[in-house]
Amino acid sequence: MATQPLSQKEIEDRLRELPGWSVEEDRLTRTYRLGDHFAATALVVHVAQIQQELDHHSDLTLGYNTVALAVNTHSAGGTVTEKDFELAERVEGIASGHGAN
Prior knowledge:
By secondary structure, the protein is an alpha+beta fold. Helix content is 41%, strand content 20%. The protein has three helices and four strands. The protein has helices spanning 8-16, 37-54, 82-95, and strands at residues 22-24, 27-33, 59-62, 66-71. The protein has a four-stranded antiparallel sheet with strand order 1-2-4-3. Helix 2 runs antiparallel to helix 3. It is globular, with a radius of gyration of 13 Å. The chain starts with 7 loop residues before the first helix and ends in a 6-residue tail after the last helix.
């Protein structure tokens, strides 16, 4: 079954449930700030594990104490879908455990 793009209203409704996340250039995005580089690196490893489990991968950027994610669904024409929000929710669930804000 193909993944369908979400409507603008669906995206706006879902974003209300995920503070800090936004849509930029048809991609669901979030940047986390952490205490130091080691904490940021640990978060990247855990995000990679989640992405592997979901078989859905974001662009993931590691800075000194930041981690940035940007994701959309290529198989849905590069639009935001439920798969992207599932990834975001899973990441959000672990980020606070790493001290991310």
